[in-house]
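TL;DR need structure tokens for one chain.
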Amino acid sequence: MEFGFVKTGAYTPQIKVADPSFNAQSIKKGIEQAYALGVQLLVMPELCVTGYTCGDLFYSDVLLGGAKAALKEIAEFTEDKKMFVFVGVPLKHNNLIYNTAAAVCGGKVLAFIPKTYLPDYNEFYEKRQFASAPEENTVVEFYGETVPFGTKIIFREQTQELFTVAAEICEDLWTAAPPSVSHALAGARIIVNLSCSDETIGKAEYRRALVKSHSAATVSCYIYADAGEGESTTDTVYAGHNLIAENGTILSESKLFKNGLIVSEADLEFLSFERSKLFNQPSLEKSGYLTLPFSAPGGSGSLTRYFSRTPFVPEEKKDVESRAELILDMQAEGLKTRLAHTRAGCAVIGLSGGLDSTLAALVAVNAMKKLGRSAKEVITVTMPCFGTTDRTYSNTLKLSAALGTTLKKVDISKAVTRHLKDIKHPQDVFDVTFENAQARERTQVLMDVANMYGGIVVGTGDLSEMALGWSTYNGDHMSMYGVNSSVPKTLVRHIVEYYAGISKGKLKWVLNDILNTPVSPELLPPENGDIAQKTESIVGPYVLHDFFLYYFIRKGYSPAKIFYIAKTVFAEEFDGVIILKWLKIFFRRFFAQQFKRSCVPDGVKVGSVALSPRGDWRMPSDASAALWLNELDKIIP
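>> reply
TL;DR here they are.
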């Protein structure tokens, strides 16, 4: 597949305990099914060739010999399939029996990975039959072939450098020091776990949390294949709880008590990007790991994993509400501390009737409340000028009254007109000078009002505007503390919606009307009383730009990869030509406007993406966008 995606699967076959021949047929069916979907890496449960619940039958050479023959049959079945498969099988070596993961590809068994930690408590008694993995790698004979045997083995796909895999078995994950930690540090980006975890009340939730958190700790794609129907139910029951997780996110999960296949794609480019920041990896030579090549290049199969249309916004309403509440609290805490530290007499905010200034006002009132101070100590300043409409002006008055802030009205029309006249700029030329003269005048008024009352100016600009440079340098670009600086536009809307939902009366009404007002800086004269300057018709839809921003900064995606994903996600909203147009504008503006981000005011970080030059994003103001734009120029939408 393209862009570092590898199609992975976990399959729970229908088995019969102690019947390797029957089980081999079930396993082959799973391989066939996965192969038809383009799966490159397939994982099956622990001891699935024989069944996990064989008990003392594992001592029988009849069972072990049958398992060996079945494994050979399974391996040969993969000869014409470019797929890497792990199956669980018992193996006798040096008169000891091991619980192993057999790595199979291209008609051969590439290696055996023995289980390190053997549970010997409650319903488990593996130490009765099995030996723990030796500390160092060795070799075993398998039908005349010398095959590596040990836990320190990394498998690397021959044509995809990032496609690296290592294995552990069931209990290995549930211990305090899982082998997969060493595997990840040694370079394995995909960890597979062949498991037979019986089901008890609450265990599925714990198992899911464990797999999810461990994929985050190891910055890996973690594939967990669990045993299901067919294992003995003498004392236990097995649910086939298969999971695929990547860096803390569940990509795919099976339903309990339903044998079968789950599939998703590991994003190896993202994992590599993330590890480049978090890992200081030792070399494979120093770590004592053996690297074995395999061939599973893939090629067929479509991308099935889910990508959110609004990655900054949770999918579930209850999660949106809890996040909005948390962000509001974080913003208010940050501003509270700055107000207390500077002994500010008030917080001054330019209220425009738009979403950003509305959120800043909500935050400022909450900050004052945390300090035990009155909302009256928030001074909201409305500054009507050439582009102000009756709707937005009216909403500033209503919002201030509903919040109980101190309202100041400063009509800046005459001051801007005089300024344009002083610099000999025509009053009827609506260019960038005409627009920015208003933005800078507003900032001057706010700064002077703050000086008058011993306060600080609270900035209203958001993360999306910062990314695009959609602000006037030394105008709305400047403040003394920017409470929205790491909140993207798509999330700003949801936070205000949340606040409207918990509000009553006049505050609820005005917040809802603000939510229904088009986004605009209102710097051009209205047309028939309506807003003439709509931001998204100029710089593009914020839903696209926030999507681009997230996958560029948080995921490290290339422009072509962002386009590839966006085409699928926004297929019903925008065609490829439109997406490409705005993506080019995003990268042009992102690089060209870095000089504004290099000197932004302080502001609280609330999420995983932030652009403060003192924190998350360090980039020279003169960096060239040529490489990124050249990549986009080669795309045919």
